[in-house]
Amino acid sequence: MKAENAIEVHDIKKSFRVYLDKGRTLKELVLFSKRRKYEERQVLQGISFEVKKGEALGLIGHNGCGKSTTLKLLTRIMYPDSGTIEMRGRVSSLIELGAGFHPDMSGRQNIYTNASIFGLTRKEIDARVDNIIEFSELEAFIDNPVRTYSSGMYMRLAFAVAINVDADILLVDEILVVGDANFQAKCFNKLREIKANGTTMVIVSHSLRQIEEICERSIWIHEGKIQKEGNPREVHPAYLEYMGQKRPEVASEKIKSEGERPGDGRVRIKTVEVISGKEGESNVFRTGEPVTLNISYNVVEKVEEASIGLEVYNGDGVKCYSTDTRTEKMDYIKLERDGEIHLILENLELLNGKYTMDFSIKSKDSLPIDSYAKAFLFEMYSDVKDTGISRLAHKWEVKNV
Question: In terms of CB atoms within 10 Å, which end of the chain has fewer, N or C?
Answer without folding.
Answer: C
